[in-house]
Amino acid sequence: MTVRNRGALAALAAGVAALTVATLVACRSQPGGDVGAEEASALASVTPVPPAAAPSVPVTAGGLPAGAETVPPVRLVIPEIGVTATVDAVGINERTNEFEVPPSVDRIGWYRYGPGLEANAGSVVIAGHVDSARQGRGAFFRLRELGQGDTMTATGSDGKARRYRVVAREEYAKTRIPLDRYFARDGKPRLTLITCGGPFDAAARRYRDNIVVTAVPA
């Protein structure tokens, strides 16, 4: 990815939290720590793509490009944590330079400038709120509870349901999340789920960390 694109994607670290203005602390069931970090890393390409050679990733918000052959996810079901959520296609907000998570906390957003469900390589990124002061618990309120071997089903716009298996759950300080890995268009096909985590900073009105769950086709 270009430097410019990485700068826009880096706003995800603040963006998923910036829309989450909760005074709630959604950390009642903390996981025992990161699991599967090495497996998640191994899914990425072992040969970094030079910025100049990387494909351009637009940073504008909007709907899917006309005539796109990409199969966007439209529904995500995670039985283990009681999630059945509608998935919206989102981009980067031009005004705030943040990941455009759907404002309704029961919906989640797929990064439409990355791979779709039909792709045989790359990371399909879906992000969602953990909670909201006005709306309560978000779709990803319990994302931190997922462990290796848990399964989920992503249904595409083509009506096909695709099953995935969790291989990793990681927590990063927002300034240290390796976005190039999680937004990559290369490497093995995988589903990347992102939400907020860690302690809530009432003064900054955001969570300190990001929770990242990586799943592979089952």
Question: Can you tell me about this structure?
Answer:
- The protein has helices at 3-10, 12-18, 37-43, 179-182, and strands spanning 73-78, 83-90, 107-111, 123-127, 131-132, 136-137, 151-156, 161-173, 190-201, 206-217.
- The chain is mainly beta.
- It has a single domain (37-42, 71-217), classed as Sortase (Sortase, Chain: A).
- Strands 1-2-3-4-9-10-8-7 form an eight-stranded mixed barrel. A two-stranded antiparallel ribbon has the order 5-6.
- The longest helix is centred in the N-terminal third of the chain and has 8 residues, at 3-10.
- The relative contact order is 0.24.
The CATH superfamily turns out to be Sortase
What is the annotated CATH architecture? Beta Barrel
The total count of helices amounts to: 4
Low-confidence stretches: 1-8, 13-29, 51-65
Biggest sheet, open or closed, and with what strands and sense? 8 strands, mixed, barrel
Task: Provide the domain count.
Answer: 1
Q: Give the helix level as a range of percent.
A: 10-25%
How would you sum up the global shape? globular
How far do the termini sit from each other?
Answer: 28 Å
Radius of gyration: 16 Å
Instruction: State the strand order across the main sheet.
Output: 1-2-3-4-9-10-8-7
**Percent strand:** 25-35%
CATH topology: Sortase, Chain: A
Structural class: mainly beta
According to DSSP, the number of beta strands is 10
Question: Can you give the mean pLDDT?
Answer: 80
The helix/strand series, from N terminus to C terminus, equals: HHHEEEEEEEEHEE
Quaternary state of the chains:
single chain
